């Protein structure tokens, strides 16, 4: 059922309330429905986003410049999946283990996750050498609103109310018993046994920070809520080319795709030996002939014979050539954080967020090391060349091409000094409040986050099912 008026949900009993209808919230509710468990999803946006609704997402960025945070998340049914890129890949095993989780707990949900995202459960990995792997992404076209709206409308178990902004929680003795919701300038309080925040990588922290102010003592005041915020820097690292025939000789049939985009990740050995953050490079599938010509011209100037060789390869269509993009991991840093603004309020009177964010030298060094080592590998095997961008070569700064992944703020872990939720995603020292989404990522890795978010939501639904049936 989809409701416009929150009063229509008043007489019903929901054992679980989910805040937010993005990939996390919808995955959780649809899986609970399969177990015949009733849930109420409270969604701040309407079926489509509007400029005035997005205004509630305005945020000040203090520190290094990043995109306006109104545009990197959508306040609407289906959440930010309304305009995501759809790149999917499971997170690396060693990354999940850093969170203190057993990889199987997450990988058990791969089949289900791929069905939800309408992608093949096949992610090949080919070892290029000790330091690099070729990796495979899948590209999902799923918009959660489009895929699930009818199912939710018809469902006996899923109840979803639109245009209702959760502001904070109330309760006592570590038990949350009500969620406070603003709709049409009126305040409503909804009771339940379990509450799950699925409101995205900034709003999850915001709602908990406001709960700390409105319901003093309900949450442990020392929890690092909002801290260790991270993104995946997505940057232009340089330009390069590689010979398809030569790389075929090395990898034979192991090479994943000779004609599509090329993704290469730094191996665990490279990360450990050089003490860098993880990262991957991406070369486009589209052939940019203008760029080819420029690269060949440059090579003809500095190395005429080599330049001619490249030019010949272009005619033979044996060259993969173009910009080298990178997506990187950032070191969790408690100074990169979300706080509530002391003066400015949104349309419902809730403080807007301030994001304190600084680029780190660790990320820059990781970018440079990965590109340098990739260049060395290309030269050693004579399979291509890499030219690193000057600002990265000189370790000055990097330019974000989009800050689309919002992670941290409610990290997973055992230690409440550096984490907010436990291994089951329950907020430390509460009995019934959970958080699901990339805000729980303890480290960011380099893989795009939504695949892992869906896995976490599926796992959480099994956990809540057990709790409800205790
Ligand atoms: C341009 C762009 C491209 C992207 N591309 C990729 C990609 O290729 N691959 C990938 O893995 N990820 C990508 N992402 C990230 C991806 O969109 C997110 O990881 C994903 O949407 C997160 O899902 P979520 O359910 O946790 O949060 P969201 O999708 O943000 O959903 C949160 C929901 O909660 C609601 N909400 C928020 N606050 C409240 C409140 N107070 N009360 C009630 N409801 C509330 C929101 O309206 C929203 O519906 C991209 C993001 C952007 C912006």
Topology:
Elements: E1 2-3, E2 16-19, H1 23-34, E3 39-42, H2 51-54, E4 59-63, E5 87-88, H3 93-98, H4 103-107, H5 110-116, E6 125-127, E7 132-135, E8 138-139, H6 144-154, E9 158-161, E10 165-172, E11 175-183, E12 186-191, E13 194-197, H7 203-214, E14 227-230, E15 234-243, H8 244-251, E16 262-266, H9 268-274, E17 279-283, H10 289-302, H11 304-315, E18 319-328, E19 337-345, E20 351-357, H12 361-380, E21 384-388, H13 390-393, E22 407-409, E23 433-435, H14 450-468
Parallel strand pairs: 1-9, 2-3, 2-13, 3-9, 4-20, 13-23
Antiparallel strand pairs: 5-8, 6-7, 7-16, 10-11, 11-12, 14-22, 15-18, 15-21, 16-17, 17-18, 19-20
Description:
Strand 11 and strand 12 form a beta hairpin. The relative contact order is 0.19. The protein is an alpha/beta fold and about 475 residues long. The radius of gyration is 24 Å and the shape is elongated. The protein folds into 2 domains: about 1-120 and about 145-230 and about 405-470, FAD/NAD(P)-binding domain (3-Layer(bba) Sandwich); about 235-330 and about 360-395, no CATH class. The mean pLDDT is about 95. The protein has helices at about 25-35, 50-55, 95-100, 105, 110-115, 145-155, 205-215, 245-250, 270-275, 290-300, 305-315, 360-380, 390-395, 450-470, and strands spanning about 1-5, 15-20, 40, 60-65, 85-90, 125, 130-135, 140, 160, 165-170, 175-185, 185-190, 195, 225-230, 235-245, 260-265, 280-285, 320-330, 335-345, 350-355, 385-390, 405-410, 435. The strands form 6 sheets. It has a 7-stranded antiparallel β-sheet. The chain has 14 helices and 23 strands. Helix 5 (about 110-115) packs across helix 14 and helix 10 (about 290-300) runs antiparallel to helix 11 (about 305-315). The structure holds flavin-adenine dinucleotide. The site of flavin-adenine dinucleotide (FAD) has 39 residues, from helix 1, strand 10, helix 7 and helix 14.
């Amino acid at each position: 059922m989809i409701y416009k008026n929150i009063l229509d949900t008043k007489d019903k009993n929901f054992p679980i309330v989910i805040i937010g209808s993005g990939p996390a919230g919808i995955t959780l509710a649809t899986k609970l429905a399969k177990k015949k468990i009733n849930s109420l999803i409270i969604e701040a946006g309407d079926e489509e986003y509007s400029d005035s609704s997005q205004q509630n997402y305005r945020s000040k960025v203090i520190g290094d410049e990043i995109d306006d945070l109104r545009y990197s998340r959508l306040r609407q049914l289906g959440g930010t999946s309304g305009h995501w890129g759809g790149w999917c890949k499971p997170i690396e095993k060693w990354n999940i283990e850093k969170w203190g989780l057993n990889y199987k707990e997450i990988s058990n949900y791969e089949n289900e996750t791929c069905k939800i995202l309408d992608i093949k459960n096949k992610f090949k990995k080919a070892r290029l050498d000790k330091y690099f792997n070729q990796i495979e992404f899948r590209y999902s076209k799923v918009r959660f609103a489009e895929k699930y709206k009818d199912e939710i409308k018809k469902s006996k178990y899923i109840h979803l109310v639109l245009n209702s902004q959760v502001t904070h929680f109330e309760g006592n003795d570590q038990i949350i018993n009500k969620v406070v919701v603003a709709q049409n300038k009126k305040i409503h309080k909804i009771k339940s046994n379990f509450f799950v925040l699925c409101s995205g990588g900034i709003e999850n922290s915001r709602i908990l920070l406001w709960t700390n102010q409105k319901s003093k003592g309900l949450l442990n005041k020392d929890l690092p809520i909002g801290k260790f915020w991270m993104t995946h820097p997505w940057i232009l690292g340089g330009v390069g080319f590689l010979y398809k025939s030569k790389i075929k000789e090395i990898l034979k049939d192991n090479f994943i795709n000779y004609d599509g985009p090329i993704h290469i990740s730094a191996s665990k050995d490279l990360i450990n030996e050089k003490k860098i953050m993880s990262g991957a490079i991406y070369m486009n599938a589209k052939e940019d002939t203008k760029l080819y010509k420029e690269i060949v011209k440059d090579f003809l100037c500095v190395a005429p014979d080599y330049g001619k060789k490249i030019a010949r390869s272009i005619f033979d269509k044996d060259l993969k050539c173009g910009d080298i993009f990178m997506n990187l991991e950032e070191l969790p840093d408690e100074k990169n954080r979300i706080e509530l603004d002391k003066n400015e309020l949104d349309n419902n009177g809730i403080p807007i967020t301030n994001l304190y964010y600084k680029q780190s030298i660790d990320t820059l060094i990781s970018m440079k090391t990965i590109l340098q080592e990739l260049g060395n590998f290309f030269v050693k095997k004579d399979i291509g060349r890499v030219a690193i961008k000057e600002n990265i070569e000189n370790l000055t700064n990097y330019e974000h091409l989009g800050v689309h992944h919002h992670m941290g703020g409610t990290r997973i872990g055992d230690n409440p000094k550096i984490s907010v939720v436990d291994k089951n995603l329950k907020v430390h020292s509460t009995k019934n409040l959970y958080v699901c989404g990339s805000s729980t990522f303890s480290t960011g890795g380099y893989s795009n986050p939504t695949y892992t978010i869906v896995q976490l939501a599926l796992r959480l639904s099994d956990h809540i099912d057990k709790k409800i049936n205790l």
